[in-house]
Specification:
With 140 residues, this protein is α/β, with parallel strands linked by helices. The protein has a single domain, classed as Rossmann fold. The protein has 5 helices and 5 strands, in the order E-H-E-H-E-H-E-H-H-E. The protein has a 5-stranded parallel beta sheet, with helices on both faces. Strand 2, helix 2 and strand 3 form a beta-alpha-beta unit. Helix 3 runs parallel beside helix 5 (124-131).
């Protein structure tokens, strides 16, 4: 396990998964790739859309905040750390980055910030688990 991809969305569950990914990267002398994917607002919902979901700069600020916290959490690790920010569908972006970054494994939380909506549209972790060409460890 040389390259471990760890998606974080700012939820406690994603940060717990990050710590497991960090431990694995250290144990195997690997690289920890921390990624945050911000999903822009979708207009096919009747739910109110927060202003930050409409502004690309606000999405980037939010992603940077999440990645800054993640970097602080893994500070002092012996593993090489790389952070990435992207905008799009979280599952699709994670799957794309598995290939692009040469990830050997994905370690992610079982649920994130989506709350009840995940039951309507399917959870990101489930989509990644179903479609990833590499092993996926889902942390509860």
């Amino acid at each position: 396990m040389k390259n471990i991809l760890a998606p974080v969305d700012g939820s406690q569950n994603s940060f717990e998964a990050l710590m497991s990914a960090k431990d694995m990267a250290e144990k195997f002398g690997g690289r920890l790739i921390i990624v945050n994917v911000q999903k822009p607002a979708s207009f096919d919902t009747s739910e109110p859309v927060p202003d930050y979901d409409l502004d690309p700069e606000a999405l980037k600020r939010r992603g940077t905040q999440v990645l800054d916290k993640a970097e602080e959490m893994v500070k002092g690790t012996t593993a090489e750390v790389k952070t990435l920010f992207t905008v799009g569908d979280p599952a699709e972006q994670i799957l794309y980055l598995v290939d692009k970054e040469g990830a050997d494994m994905v370690v992610m939380g079982s649920h994130g910030l989506s709350g009840v909506r995940r039951f309507l549209i399917g959870s990101v972790s489930n989509k990644v688990l179903q479609h990833s060409p590499k092993p996926v460890m889902v942390i509860k």
